[in-house]
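note to self — DONT lose this again. spent like an hour looking for the file last time. sequence + predicted structure for the chain T wanted, 163 res
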Amino acid sequence: MIKILVVSDIHYPIRRLELPNLERYVSKADMILGLGDFVDIQVVSYLKSFGKPFAGVHGNMDFDDVKRSLPETFVLNVGGINIGLYHGNGGPKGIEKRVFSKFNGKNIDAYLFGHSHKPVNRYIDGKFYFNPGTLCGARQTLGFVYIDFDNIWGEIKTYSDNA
């Protein structure tokens, strides 16, 4: 089984004054996926510093150096599952449809996105949609996505700095 840590919307240093302490979460993961709105390139460097495989996309609030370092969309295959990464856009209502349309009919099994700060962990029309939520604000969450053979599922966790 493959266990993937998924984070989004950290918003450092604008809405969050310190980098989140992700060490205990990363230690349980095989890889890390970041879904944008890191804001500062330091967050991307921090996520890469753990030495785990990392892939990510930029978000609408990211500084220009982050936007130059990470694509808007990215597709990767993990354990035979095609995963589409995109930050997202617009309001929370209908975001899954907008994420789906961003990939223009590519063969995607799972859509991972952020932007709305609202966790999503569900299947729609046989496709997996996952948003880990946000690591800033009052209710901070992150997620784990699991892949085992042809199966993919997720788990939303409440984040704690000192857990």
